[in-house]
Amino acid sequence: AQSVTQLGSHVSVSEGALVLLRCNYSSSVPPYLFWYVQYPNQGLQLLLKYTTGATLVKGINGFEAEFKKSETSFHLTKPSAHMSDAAEYFCAVSGNNQGGKLIFGQGTELSVKP
Amino acid sequence: EAGVTQFPSHSVIEKGQTVTLRCDPISGHDNLYWYRRVMGKEIKFLLHFVKESKQDESGMPNNRFLAERTGGTYSTLKVQPAELEDSGVYFCASSPGVHRVSETQYFGPGTRLLVL
User: How many angstroms separate the CA atoms of A61 and B107, rounded?
Assistant: First the structure.
């Protein structure tokens, strides 16, 4: 069975500081990995995804994530936080044995202090 | 192009009542998914339609939940009778088709259901 763990339900950073949101997964098949963001009163929006190929994936709004198979991780980073990055972030996994459904982590609420 | 829409945005009902949630996917998307987030928990898969057929309903909690997708377009999720533990945010998502496991799913804003 697949599962996702996001370390830290709340993360707070100062504006301009590095953002690091952690995601570890378990999967018995090659995983497809996703990061979604939810701004207040909106639906989930895809930030980036890893399917195959290059393990460093760049997404929207300056975010990127690196797939590390040996560490079963897919951490999300952004070099410099902006106030507009305050939102909830979800890591998710799917696999060829799952028919397309996403398995989500618990979510991480990111706060950005001025 | 219109995104995924859900109606209503909020619903407050009493235990034992019936509620029907609606999802309109992006036009032309064959795949439609329902997910739910109970407060404080992770978003969990409920079921998956491919066109009008139920592909996977392994996440449906019990037989009080009934989902339909008439004509392969919009979908409804009915809860009858509603219980307190059904409270949460119900998300709908859609994706185009063929490469399901790697495709981006486009999410609606969710329906916030509160059962009193």
Answer: 19
